[in-house]
């Protein structure tokens, strides 16, 4: 009505409204009314797009192979994409040109160039084994492609799912693999025989080494026994020498002790003889009665009585018989 139109964008679409060549509205998933006279409406999809691919390539050794995989991209910079491509839509939201449809073609072409460059550096066998490495290298190289960054494209994922050689190459590889397997089987048989011979030789060498080691050990034990016996004899001889030395020392000390005792005994004997000699000289000037009295002065009473009885039996005063009363005998026996 009167050229007024309502536009409703989904959340994954970036909308830009130009009025007379000037940007008046922009945003993701916005809704608005606008007058279509002199207005241009751009709708830029922001959702991710997954594109499968299959490229026929030649390897470094000129062999045909097919690389299959998938690339996922999105428009990360809608303002850049709007400046490079035409995303103008009509009142019904239909694109007025095929630029948006060509984005997939550009992405696939950029991926194809990178895959071709990588595969041309590898032989057929290397290429068949390079799926993982190829995925990583292409993933790292895609963000640097000007053909994509210039239109605001960002590649979020790249993967190689299969690398397939041609049927002729497959047969050749299978034949080569069979030959290699047969060769490996022959090598395995040869290796087993060689290993058996080497093991037998090692067993014999080990037996000889063991015998030599046992002999060497026995010789060492015999030598150790001789050394131990020799050391025991040396110790025994040392002990005997110590005993002899100790006995000699004891005998010498005993001889010195005997000499000392003899010397001391001689000295005491000389002293006693000198004392007796002096005593006798002193007694020579004393008469016999005084000596007798002096000798009796230190006697006990019973000794004095016995001396008196003995005197009655000698000399002129000698008596024939002597009677003792019981009281005297009892008194004498008490002492």
Automatic annotation (TrEMBL):
Q: Which InterPro entries match?
A: Band_7, Band_7/SPFH_dom_sf
Protein's UniProt name: Band 7 domain-containing protein
Answer whether the UniProt record assigns the keyword Coiled coil to this protein.
Answer: yes
Is-annotated flag, keyword Coiled coil? yes
Q: How does it sit in the membrane?
A: Single-pass membrane protein
This protein's UniProt keywords: Coiled coil
Domain of life of the native organism: Bacteria
User: Where does it reside?
Assistant: Membrane
Coiled-coil segments on the chain, per record: 214-277
């Amino acid at each position: 009505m009167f050229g007024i139109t309502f536009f409703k964008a989904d959340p994954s679409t970036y909308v830009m409204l130009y009025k007379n060549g000037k940007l008046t509205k922009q945003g993701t998933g916005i809704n608005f009314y606008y007058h279509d006279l002199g207005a241009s409406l751009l709708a830029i999809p922001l959702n991710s797009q997954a594109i499968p691919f299959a490229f026929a390539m030649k390897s470094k050794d000129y062999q045909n192979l097919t690389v299959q995989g998938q690339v996922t991209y999105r428009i990360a910079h809608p303002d850049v994409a709007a400046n490079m491509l035409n995303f103008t839509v009509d009142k019904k939201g239909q694109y007025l040109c095929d630029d948006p449809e060509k984005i997939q073609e550009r992405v696939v072409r950029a991926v194809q160039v990178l895959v071709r460059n990588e595969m041309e550096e590898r032989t057929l066998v290397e290429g068949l084994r390079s799926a993982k490495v190829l995925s990583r290298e292409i993933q790292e190289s895609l963000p640097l492609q000007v053909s994509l960054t210039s239109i605001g494209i960002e590649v979020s994922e790249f993967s190689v799912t299969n690398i397939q050689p041609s049927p002729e190459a497959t047969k050749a590889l299978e034949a080569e693999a069979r030959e290699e397997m047969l060769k490996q089987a022959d090598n395995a048989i040869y290796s087993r025989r060689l290993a058996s011979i080497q093991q037998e030789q090692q067993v014999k060498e080990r037996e000889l080494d063991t015998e030599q080691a046992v002999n060497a050990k026995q010789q060492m034990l015999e030598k150790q026994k001789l050394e131990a016996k020799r050391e025991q004899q040396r110790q025994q001889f040392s002990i005997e020498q110590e005993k002899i030395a100790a006995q000699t020392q004891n005998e010498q000390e005993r001889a010195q002790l005997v000499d000392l005792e003899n010397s001391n005994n001689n000295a005491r004997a000389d002293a006693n003889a000198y004392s007796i000699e002096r005593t006798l000289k002193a007694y020579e000037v004393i008469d016999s009665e005084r000596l007798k009295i002096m000798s009796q002065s230190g006697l006990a009473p019973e000794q004095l009585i016995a001396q008196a009885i003995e005197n009655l039996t000698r000399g002129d005063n000698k008596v024939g018989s002597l009677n003792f009363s019981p009281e005297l005998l009892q008194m004498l026996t008490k002492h």
